[in-house]
Amino acid sequence: MKLAAIETRIVEMPLVTPFRTSFGTETMRQVLVVRAETDEAEGWGECGASEAPLYSSEYTEGAAAVIREFFVPALRDAQRDLGDDFDAHRVAPALAAFKEHRLAKSAIETAILDAQLRAQGISFASALGAVRESVPCGVSLGITDTIDQLLDTVAASLDAGYVRIKLKIEPGWDLDPVRAVRERFGDIDLQVDANAAYRRSDARLLAKLDAFDLTLLEQPLPADDLLGHAALAREITTPICLDESITSARAAATAIELGAVHIVNIKPGRVGGYLEARRIHDLCAAHDVPVWCGGMLETGIGRAANVALAALPGFLLPGDTSASERYFATDLTEPFRLEEGRIAVPTGPGLGVTPIPEVLDRFTVRQDRLPC
Ligand code: OSB
Ligand code: MG
């Protein structure tokens, strides 16, 4: 396969409701969409970064810049060395010299993998090793102004069919909302995500969550505090799940060895792409560590690939793979719909979905074509 060009677009999609986490509030999903043009097919990828570097150090404009200034020239060089042999597995090695920027690397690798799989007539699901035709879905609910608002949102999510509820927490919004949801809705599958908002000295407070029988506590401490998570794991009974800390298969191996993690949230963007995500899945399976698929408020492009990944055998818990309408009134692709709490895994070649040109154009604020 020969890569002809990388096209980047900055797209701005209004969210149906603001999404508030311990690190900030998003009312609009600013997303970098990547299109890979090859001699055989085109492919699509999306970058998980948002407008500001609040979840991680990456942000949309930075991702666009690193792709333009460094990644595309490196892909051009790699391709020149390889002749017509270029494919998605060459992307990570070609970009490995550039530190971090995993969300941007993932968008590039995904677009090229999509092009390759479309040309080969293979779906993401079968390329990755999926064993399910549909996946059970959870929903991640942001911090609200009042507990009553939160209870209404949980009620609506359960009515819609979501099989697992995740509440965002932060200091000052933890025990009370969790208690209220548990009391009102009883024995539902409930978990919480702190996005690194607590410190080791909060262990006693976090131990009070044990009373609510949560499925897991996601990323309570800073990303680089693996020892803190290991210490916390010895002081509380709620299983610890890591998100921000797991940046690679190596980081996952370290966290498992330290006893810092019981369950892993796999976000392909955060680890640099679906190929590394697959390796983390395999590593966790080998250690009997369950995984689930996280999300970054993806449009249909990223959602298609996430749903395919979530169909692998080690994905033993419902993911943050919610339906398109939970995020957007109009998605970039055909919307993903929830049916009896599940989303069907796309079966067509590559992602199995394609952005709708008029919709993509309507939400695009800037576009750049970079020849390779
Ligand atoms: O921590 O899992 C997270 C969204 C953006 C950034 C980080 C996170 C999230 C979510 C929402 O929790 C997941 C989703 O519904 O896509
Ligand atoms: Mg998280």
Architecture blueprint of SSEs:
Blueprint (H helix, E strand, L loop, with lengths): L2 E19 L2 E15 L3 E6 L12 H23 L8 H5 L6 H19 L3 H5 L5 E3 L1 E4 L5 H14 L3 E5 L6 H11 L4 E4 L9 H5 L9 E2 L7 H10 L4 E3 L6 H10 L4 E4 L7 H13 L4 E3 L6 H10 L32 E3 L12 H7 E8 L1
Helix pairs in contact: 1-3, 5-6, 9-10
Organism: Leucobacter iarius
Cofactor: a divalent metal cation
InterPro entries: Enolase-like_C_sf, Enolase-like_N, Enolase_C-like, Mandelate_racemase_C, Mandelate_racemase_N_dom, OSBS/NAAAR
How would you sum up this structure, described in words?
By secondary structure, the protein is of the alpha/beta class. The two termini are 13 Å apart. The chain contains twelve helices and 13 strands. It has helices at residues 60-82, 91-95, 102-120, 124-128, 147-160, 175-185, 203-207, 226-235, 249-258, 274-286, 300-309, 357-363, and strands spanning 3-21, 24-38, 42-47, 134-136, 138-141, 164-168, 190-193, 217-218, 240-242, 263-266, 291-293, 342-344, 364-371. Strand 7 (190-193), helix 7 and strand 8 (217-218) form a beta-alpha-beta unit. The model has no long low-confidence stretch (mean pLDDT 97). The site of 2-succinylbenzoate has 11 residues, from loops. Pfam families: MR_MLE_C, MR_MLE_N. Residues 147-239 form the Mandelate racemase/muconate lactonizing enzyme C-terminal domain.
Please compute the radius of gyration using only Cα atoms: 20 Å
Using the alpha-carbon principal axes, give the shape: globular
Give the tally of β-strands.
13
On the 0 to 100 scale, the average pLDDT is 97
End-to-end Cα distance: 13 Å
Protein name: o-succinylbenzoate synthase
EC number: 4.2.1.113
Keywords: Lyase, Magnesium, Metal-binding
Cofactor: a divalent metal cation
